[in-house]
Amino acid sequence: MNPDDQPLTAPQVGELVKLIGQTRDVEFDCSECIAHVGEFAETQLEGRPLDEALAKVEHHLTLCPECREEWLALMKILEASV
Amino acid sequence: MTQTEINWPDALRATDRGEQAAAVSALRDILQKGLRVALGTRDDVSEAHIEDFAQESLLRVLDRLYQFQGRSKFTTWAQSIALNTAFAELRRKRWQDVSLDALTAQGERMADPAAMPDDLFGAGEDRERLVAALRKSIEEDLTPKQRAGILAELQGMPFDQVSQLLGTTRNAAYKLLHDARRALKSRLHEAGITNQDIQSAFNV
Asked: Is the CB of residue A55 less than 8 Å away from at least one CB of chain B?
């Protein structure tokens, strides 16, 4: 197989293994994350502990780069308005 | 009255048209200001984009008012919707030229043994055993859609775009890939490979 045709590189397989290691039987999907991410961001800024639902948001953010990108942008907005 | 004292859902639903228009206008300004903070330094985002995103986001917020449960400040909730709207559009533009056919063809090549040689991560019994089990599971346990979706995810394609290519929703795409990860994890566990083995072999 031509190296250019390789569908997977070692870093990508490493990332897949990492994702598998973090997989749980029950996870929040993106909609559930978006529904709670505002509360999650405010809780983080105030330094309060996470309840069960917000812990699921935190876990989803480790697996979903899109939701993580949106959460980081939200934190930037909230920090700018403090 | 300050913004934090406004009862936004009531103001946005007000029967007094003047009151409602003022609330809508104030919320649009807040969303626009937030988007400017979040996206203003990006090369691919102009002030016109920010105005468009703010207007589109405003309509989505008004459509979803009934979903606001008061678990955060209203403006935080609205900003999260605005960011989701804006980033989804920016990702769509970035990935619009990728076709499902190309993705599916690449995904099928993931099942080719040559795609993942045992020594992909160098020598080491644990690593080789893990790669062999992973390759077998990709070939036998995943559907073509799951292979294509996993590959797209590893290549950095966002769920929004994966779901569009697969003709499904972002949530359904996430579930498809979650099911795929669970199947792979289950196979690794059946092969006697635990999370601890993964962590020690790959330092993750």
From this structure: no
